[in-house]
Amino acid sequence: RLEFGEIPVVKFVASNLDGVEDANHGLLKSLRSFADQIYRNQSAGDSDTLVSELSQFFNFWLKLRGLLPQYFAEVVTEGQSLDALFDALRSVLEEALSAMEDKDFVLAADLIQYEVVPAVEKVHGAIPKLQAALRAAG
């Protein structure tokens, strides 16, 4: 008999967040590389790939947030809940994507380097706390 419940989902998520850390490292590398390329060449290069990576990152976390909302409200890092971190990240991502659409790549690079990267790093830093909270519940 197959059952889905909060505890099995919590255990599954907790045991699979290590892979998310690797993906976050990859995204951070892509973000930094994109900003560096703009500063060097004043061109966006392959911005579609970066937009796709950002979209996948954000959609994953939004789905996880929808699945386990209480943990996103409870887990706090650097004085902010994961909920607050994602609200801030959403806002700055919208600004960066708008700048890319407007072909203002220097603004996009500045937003990525000084706003998006630190926000993603905060989320990344919260992963061990989220894992601990999930394991404690399971």
Query: What is the CA-atom radius of gyration, in angstroms?
Result: 16 Å
Gross geometry: elongated
Largest sheet: 2 strands, antiparallel
String of helices and strands: HHHEEHH
Task: List low-pLDDT spans.
Answer: none
Per DSSP, the total helix count is 5
The SS-based structural class is mainly alpha
Mean pLDDT: 85
Distance between the termini: 20 Å
Beta-strand portion reads: under 5%
Number of separate structural domains: 1
Secondary-structure topology with pairs:
Layout: H1 6-41, H2 47-67, H3 69-74, E1 76-77, E2 80-81, H4 82-101, H5 105-137
Antiparallel strand pairs: 1-2
Verbal overview:
With 138 residues, this protein is mostly helical. It has one domain. The protein has 5 helices and 2 strands, in the order H-H-H-E-E-H-H. It has helices at residues 6-41, 47-67, 69-74, 82-101, 105-137; strands at 76-77, 80-81. A two-stranded antiparallel sheet has the order 1-2. A hairpin with a 2-residue loop joins strand 1 (76-77) and strand 2. Helix 1 (6-41) runs antiparallel to helix 2, helix 2 (47-67) packs antiparallel against helix 4 and helix 4 packs antiparallel against helix 5. The longest helix is centred in the first third of the chain and has 36 residues, at 6-41. The mean pLDDT is 85.
